Amino acid sequence: MLQTRRCGELSEADDDTEQTLCGWLQETRNLGGIAFLQLRDSTGIAQLTLPKKKVGEDNFKVWTAIARESTLRVTGTVKANQEAPNGLELVPTELEVLNAAATPLPLGVVDRIESEIETRLNARYLDLRRPEVAAFFRIRAAISGAVHNHLRREGFLEVQTPKIIASATEGGTALFPVQYFDREAYLAQSPQLYKQVLMSGGLDRVYEVGPAFRAEEHNTPRHLNEFISIDIEMSWADDDDVMGVMERLVATCAESVSQEAEALTALEMAPLEVELPLPRITYDEAIEIASAKADIAWGDDLSMEATRAIAEQYGGFYFITKWPLSLKPFYIQAEGEKHSKGFDFMFREVEMTSGGQRVHDVALLELRLREQGLDPKEFGHYLEPFRYGMLAMVFSGAQNVRECVLFPRDRNRLTP
RNA sequence: GCCCCGAUAGUGUAGUGGCCUAUCAUGCAGCCUUGUCGAGGCUGCGACCCGGGUUCAAAUCCCGGUCGGGGCGCCA
Description:
The chain is an alpha+beta fold. The chain has 2 domains: 7-99, CATH 2.40.50.140; 127-279 and 314-404, Bira Bifunctional Protein, Domain 2 (BirA Bifunctional Protein, domain 2, 2-Layer Sandwich), CATH 3.30.930.10. Helices cover 28% and strands 26% of the residues. The chain contains 12 helices and 18 strands. A hairpin with a 2-residue loop joins strand 2 and strand 3 (44-51). Helix 9 (283-291) packs across helix 10. The longest helix is centred in the middle third of the chain and has 23 residues, at 131-153. It binds one RNA strand of 76 nucleotides through residues 27, 29-36, 38, 47, 49, 51-53, 67-68, 81, 83-85, 103-108, 110-119, 170-174, 189, 214, 216-221, 223, 303-305, 328-331, 372, 374, 378, 380, 384, 412.
């Protein structure tokens, strides 16, 4: 057995027993006649205490010279001691360096200095060793679990569709071309076309959680060129039904995240309260609110400036419903003359995703397509993909999506 | 793709034409120190993004590039 305890698992009951621990050497405090080493793994920190007389001159010299963030395996006797952190320490008899860390580190794991996200991403393997960084991924995982549980409970079937596709299925988004043997192919920007086929195939409630790729050259704290999307499609439903699914889904996520007390504490983040039903404001109302603070007229898309004004009144999640037909894709159903059954799902000033009721009449669909000068053989979908990173960002309080993605792909970043 | 702002030791920063042989912290290296937990003390190491230009003189001013931050656009 490589280890007999995790670093965070030592207890009073282990007093005077021999144990073996593995972990990263977080810090060494050498006081001359005695030294303290902090050994860390994902469960916590154990203090190794090295009284020079007990461990011997030679061991003392070698063991206190090990570079920070090296990986160690250490065996010794556990001692309960009031002066030790958590009241426990381990006095080593054997200490093996599994891997010595390079020095100096590109990034201090426990240093007081806060590095820029750019530096951190370049040394992500070190960055992730910080509890507040790992916390983002605990929250992400909590959301992931909640999404699957919830949608399954509501009768949605999880599906996986191809990520290598033959042609640009949508007119708008730039795709990444890839070489597929001797043909050109693309990385999928959305599962929409396949979801569409599944609806026809009788799987009338499906969802997919998977990667999506968009070759857009934007550079914002919210956009990535590769992201994990939560994509939902349901038949026999109108825009209200879809909003119902979305708000219940988000409420389940909030509930699940609120149980991640340790991660939230590390992030200094209060759990988000989601009270159902979420507010629904119409586009017309949104324009009225926004026009007091922003230069905006009916028929305009809502700028960041406009949504900030709205966010002053709606602090959490909410829907903006009944958008002008002209601002929504051709496949969204009309409501009256100028309005549509399309909605945006918002968190404060940020658009999380959008959705709506689709036009199911093929003739009408083709007419609307031609009006927009598009090819009628293309189809739409009920719900724009939900970006995982965005949910994680909101629930963790991150200022940049890159925080919530292990190895983000953006305009300039392809490694690590 | 457009606009505004920025780039200085491993990391984070100070420095607005000569006082820069470039500040401070952290780190790293060495020495001292038997209860550290943001350990402490002493000594040392280490940097002006790249390419042009202006000037007697450039980290500092100008032009181009690269990269980063914010906003916009794009994301039917």
